[in-house]
Structure formats: structure tokens, C-alpha cells
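Supplementary Data S3. Sequence and C-alpha cells for construct A.
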Amino acid sequence: MNAPDLIPIFESIIPKEQWALLKKVSLKFHDVALLKWISFGNKNIYRRYYLKVTYKDQLVKKITISKTTKDQLKQNIKTFNYFLKSNKL
């Protein structure tokens, strides 16, 4: 996937004006222990996903995302980080 295809995916979460300030982004999750114990069946209602955004000045920002957004971003995160690293925005 090339850079123009990534623009609508990541621009909805991170404004394009901030891309020049980014170092990298990554997907993370946090399990809520209480919900994990009472969850029914095979449903992951206890898992909270977020996008960890690291800026060039080492500032870290965590943006909460849904599971469907996570699935869409997971396929493109490596390409986006390569785009950030290789392009002078």
C-alpha cells in the first residue's frame, strides 16, 4: 500500500498537520481484569485498544480506538511508520 492510500485511514485519527512531528505509531491494548473474569464465551469485551503515538520530542500520546479500527490499522501500521521515517513531510 502506498502513501496516498494511508491518508484517509490515519488522517481520521491523527491530523495530517501533525505527521511531520511524529516519530512512530504502534497499536497497544490493555486488559480490564474485572471484565476478563466475568466475560462470557469467546468475546473480548475486556480488552481496550489504543494507538500509541510517539512524537520526535519523545512525547507519548495514547488515542483510544475501537476493535474494528484496530483491525484496519493493524494491516497498515508498518507501512505508515516506514512512510514517516522515509519522507520529509
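Construct B, processed identically:
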Amino acid sequence: MGPAAPPSEAAAAADDVVLPYISRILMEEDIDDDMFFCLYPDHPALLEAQQPFAQILSSSSGIAGEVNSAPMEDSAALMMQGSGNGRGRKGSKHGGDELEAEVGRASKLMATPEEEEDDDDGVGEMLEKMMLNGDEDEAFHGETNAPRVPAEKKCGKAARRRRQAKGEVVDLRELLMSCAQAVASGNRRSAGELLEQIKRHSSPTGDATERLAHYFADGLEARLAGAASLECRLVASAEERASAMELLEAYQVFMAACCFKWVAFTFANMGILRAAEGRSRLHIVDYGGQYHGLQWPSLLQRLAEREGGPPEVRMTLVGHPQPGFRPARRLERTGRRLSNCARAFGLPFKFRAVAAARWETVTAEDVVGVDPDDEAAVVVNDVLSLGTLMDESGVFDDPSPRDTVLGSIRDMRPAVFVQAVVNGAHGAPFFPTGFREALFFFLALFDMLGATTPEEGSHLRVVLERDVLRRAAVGVIAGEGAERVERPETYRRWQARNRRAGLRQAAVEGDVVEAVRRRVRRRHHEEFVIEEDAGWLLQGWKGRILYAHSAWVVAEDGAH
């Protein structure tokens, strides 16, 4: 087999086929339901509704099945239900009329006959335009590399002037911290007074700090009121969620503004490509199965075009069940799309879904089997999913779900395990400490959006902050124990945890770091940070490291 393409070429091509793939997603008739489960898979109301079905299914025998890239109707999923609250979660465009015909051909290739009639009030057309080739910056801002004028600066300065004119200059961050201290100490009167003051000076359309304070106030109120209020607030956010079209447009704004997801997908895919060199069979195991499979079309295309011929590819998505009679429906739909995509590229492809309420019950044998003649190279992928697992088992002396899953990954003996983690300490058990960490983490995200979103995208920025960042922030602030979804750790703690599990860190190759850094410098805001530390590729904003990426192999002879 020929060598992998240079990192610069792989990076440049990483999102070339993402937009045609998205167009097929949004042309499906029930995309709104699918989008809901993508954004709210851990919603308390959904988890409650799921329990009776989980109990029914747990009494039935499991069904395992594989899906060829041709006959999708025979797909089946391995159902592994269990009690507990282990939960999973949850770019680019480039304009050019001359490419529309090519997009149309790509969409037809990726469609099954029964899907071609499905459209969604212009959503399909919008997505086809998005899918041209993945150059989101140039689509929104032309081909200039000049820094964008932040849309928030005008409204932020105006808001400050209004407060100063009234003699009401306040430090919202200090107010938020004081309110968190009052909530932690049980001083409800003081907390209520501080919340009223925060609400007067915050706004969902103000500057970054005012926007963050507006949504953090929701989280503090929910924590004061208890778990029932948290559930009601998350239900309300789901009921008020944007349409599929708005979410798609907001996704465009986000991917134009931010390099975070592009870097995550590119780093992982480049590591997988290198692990697949010289191998005729490849088995990709993806924990989470979120993002509708957006990570994979570019990888499948590069594998199909590999010098010497493509490998046979199997993919197993390990995700969480949905409530209802088809718990693996979202995973199966992702598999159908990817199978159609692989068929269009001429890549031999099989797909399998593993839907499990508790990932720690999924063993290596369940995922990769025990066939001694299977010479497929196994690669394991995690993009921000393992951080949703509980860090404690609830049973004395039992390993935590995180450690158990990492042990299963080790037992798969992967050629590479690529991991992306949220770097933060806002999962700390002491509330004021965790709140402070969450404050600075989310403030970096709100500030990044304010500095990079074009003014014409301001409404969609509100959609993104309200429907995605708000939900995450409220969950972190108000959730405790099993109610909490996001449980971030620093990348250094993940490093120690992975080593304890019997994994050895692979070095981050300098050419990969440089290829990513060049692309980010060329196409994104100068305040984005791309660094390397202790074998991790780090991403951040204005010096704060927000995400970290690494690659791992099995440690031999116990040398961790």
C-alpha cells in the first residue's frame, strides 16, 4: 500500500465532502426529531421516558447485525440495555455557482432511491450549498484574512455606556461568583437579590459577559430550586429550540467562526489514516456516534482513493439508546448515510450499531469479537464522549465507568486510540470551585463567538448560544451526581487515567501540528491557540486551553 498523503494535503481535504453529506441529512423528512436527539440525548424527560423500554428490551435477547454498503434494509443493532445514568452526547462552506451541478451529483450518489423525494422546505437546497467543499471562512468573509470586526463590540460598548450613565457600573463576573457563594452556603435571600441584579445587567444580545451572565443566571436559579427546576428548564429549552434550518445556519456560523471541531476531526482522521497504512482491513470503533457521522465522509473518501487500493472497512458506533421502540434508530440512520457515502466512493463498507445505556457493560468481545483469524486493524475514536461518563461507580471498590470503558478499549488492542477531551475542571465536586472554572471556560466560548461571528450572523449566534451553550452551562451549574451530563477533567488527569488503564501515549508528530497550525492561522482569528504539550495537541482561545487531543496504543509488559 502506498504512503498516506502529506498532512498538509490531508488537512486541506478533511472537510471537502462534509457539506454534501449534511445535505442528505437535512433532506430527510423527520430531521427535526433526529436533530432533537442529537442535541438533547441526555434530556431528563427523554431519559425518564426511556426507562420502561429499557426494562422491556433488557429482558429480550440481543440482536447483532452488520450492514453492507448496499442492502441497508437488513440493518440491525446490538441492544445492550441497563439501568443507570451513563449518558452520551453530543465545518464549513464555500460559495461558487459553478459547483452546484457537482453538488447535485454528489447528493444523488449519496441518496437511496426512496430518499430522493424527501425535502424539508428548502433545507435540502441550503445543505447542498453548504456541502460544496468545506471552506467556511471564505464563504462568510470572502478570501480576505483580515480580522473580522466583532459584531458584539458596538452593543457591548453601548451597554456599558448605558450602565455608566445611570451610575450602575457592575462587574458581572464578580456578581456571578458572589451569587454562587450564596447558593453554596444556602443563603437564599442573598442569592435571590444577587440574581435580580445579574438579570438587570445581562442580556442574550449584549456583549460576551452579558450573554454569559444571562444564561448562567438560569443555571443558578435552577440550582436554587432543585432538580425539578433543572428538568423543567431543560424541557423548556427543548420546546423553544430552533428549527432544523436555523440550527443548520447556526452550524455554518459556528464552523466559520471556530476551528475547534475541524481540528478534532482532522487530528483523529489523520491518526487513523496512518494506522491503516499497509492494512487491507480496518475496523473503526467510534464511541458516541454523535454529530450525525460528520467526521467520517472525508476519511472514507481518502481511504477509497488510497494508492494500492482501498481497505475493507467496518465501523461500529457505540452510542446511547433513544426512548421508543427503536432505541438504535439514530445510530442506524447514521450508518445508512455512511454506507451510502462509502458506496458512492466505491469503498467496501460494513456498519454495526451498539446501543447501550451503560457503556461500561460493553466489552471488547461485544465490539470487535474474538475471531483469531480477523486481521483487521482496530482503531478507536472518542470525540468528547467519554467525558460524559461517571467518574465513580456508586459501588464500593468497583472501578469507575470511565476506567472500565478505557479497560475495554485496551482489550481491543487498537492500532491507535484517538481521543479529544474538554480541558476543564468545572466538574469539581466543590460547587464554588467548579462554578468559577465553568465561568472562565464558557466565557472564553462566548468571547470567541463575539470576536469572530460576522454581524449578519448575529441572530444565528443567539440560536447557538441559547440552544447549545445555554443547555451545557445550565447542566454544569445545576446538575449534581447522575443529573450532570458534562464531567470534564484536565487533559493531564486524562493522561494519568489512560496510563493506569494500560495505554501508552503516542507522540504527536510535528508535521501534523504544523499543518493544523498553518491552516488555523490562515483561515481563523489570530486569538485561536494551537499548541503542543506532553504529547497532546491543544486548542484554546486567548491563552485558555479548552480542548486537547492525543493518540494512544496498548502499553506492552505493563509499561504504562
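The chain has one domain: 7-142+242-558. DSSP finds 22 helices and eleven strands in the chain.
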